[in-house]
Hints:
2 copies of one chain form a homodimer.
Chain A: E1 3-11, H1 25-29, H2 34-44, E2 48-52, H3 56-61, H4 68-82, E3 88-91, H5 93-97, H6 100-116, E4 120-127, H7 131-141, E5 152-155, H8 165-174, E6 177-183, H9 190-193, H10 203-218, E7 226-230, H11 235-243, E8 247-256, H12 262-268, H13 270-273
Parallel strand pairs in A: 2-3, 3-4, 4-5, 5-6, 6-7, 7-8
Antiparallel strand pairs in A: 1-2, 1-8
Helix pairs in contact in A: 4-6, 7-8, 11-12
Amino acid sequence: xxxxxxxxxxxRRARVGIPRSRAVCYRTAMTLPFSQRxxxxxxxxxxxxxxxxxxxEALKGWGLPDDAAGLRAFCQGLVETCAPLVASVKPQSAxxxxxxxxxxxxxxxxxxxATAHGTLVIVDAKRGDIGSTAVAYGEAFLxxxxxxxxxxxxxxxxxxxxxxxxxxxxxxxxGAGVFVVIRSSNxxxxxxxxxxxxxxxxxxxxxxxxITVANAAASSDELGCIGAVLGATQGAEAAELAKRLPxxxxxxxxxxxxxxxxxxxxxxxxxxxxxx
Amino acid sequence: xxxxxxxxxxxRRARVGIPRSRAVCYRTAMTLPFSQRxxxxxxxxxxxxxxxxxxxEALKGWGLPDDAAGLRAFCQGLVETCAPLVASVKPQSAxxxxxxxxxxxxxxxxxxxATAHGTLVIVDAKRGDIGSTAVAYGEAFLxxxxxxxxxxxxxxxxxxxxxxxxxxxxxxxxGAGVFVVIRSSNxxxxxxxxxxxxxxxxxxxxxxxxITVANAAASSDELGCIGAVLGATQGAEAAELAKRLPxxxxxxxxxxxxxxxxxxxxxxxxxxxxxx
Lengths: 276, 276
């Protein structure tokens, strides 16, 4: 079963007056911030984000060999079919890494192919580290000067949101975006993400608030460069977190293989969904 | 300034009666579990783990170009000089990823070169994800059948320790090791890692206990395949966490550039250090 992710702004949509005919060219120029480029494209196409997940099982399902050539064929097929229809695609880095350096060359080519369709690419890498290592992850994936040339990437914050600040800085400089996992779609994440700080907030709530402060401090735009990942399977809890993220794009995975439906997202994120 | 990490067992050292002359061959065979191979080699060489951190700044400091060729020269030099002296080296994946697929080919070659010296390689990747994606990360980095052929890798647990179970399974199957970040050396990580669960334990304490349960359930060996990363800068707090991890190897970064000294580690981990 395919995996889809819903990507949208909440709760207020940034008003970017980009004429329909000019929207696509912003993808190439990469001068406007990611959030504005996304909103313009989502209006033209669809806000759904297509996951590119060439797992061993998926390659087998397509009758492809489990090697770099099979990986390339899978990604080419998916990008040619889907990329023109949506605002963004999300290749999962792990499925490229398991084929070694040759697999990462296919990741690079996949980003390039999607970009040729004017589609934004969110590299799902869930990276996170400190200091110069964080800088290196930002330099690896974000913007046209990076080797993988992603428009955005996902991040993991076990080392604290502050540890990711160097990546946020690179994202701002390059007009790229980041999505920090706040509340994941899997049940095993609940214990940690619901743990409480001394002030009573959960870990997820604290990260959401810190993202909002960082976005507001860095820019007067309605949407900042730091988005959040909120599992579609988390329902009302994720919707509550969305309220704490007024300046963030939201990436909502879990539709499809993980059991949530687009109807679930419409229900749980009702107030925000209407503003997509 | 160089970065060193201390890697050791706590609190009880597994008794592996490997004759000195035979220890190195276990590196190649990769049949014994990682922890036993590490302990045998640490007895012969040093338990210090040398970080391979070819940041932009480090390449500049060595007078090397900031490209894949400079990266290769840096890693070759460091491996030839240091790898024969220590039980393990720890290349930081981010510094290879920032050079794209060519950089990841250098990572592969660096692991190969260290392996040729009989040295164990811990890929510092801090990966973490769920389901088939977690499987893919394990398949990418762990064991001689993986493209990067690491002996161990570091993991991040924001999605819950349970989400990493597929990687633990691959580690066991391949005789490899993993190190989950429990308490990081940077100050920004404290808020999240000290957040409390309903039963009063901190997030870090809970992860430590879950690791101990998982190690004990999977094997009757004194040391399991799941180790932990505990920041040397966290002093007594990290030492308390070490007590909760009787079946884990401990990777203690923060010595050198981050301000902690080997004397700090000796003091804070006194009871455990004596058993290295």
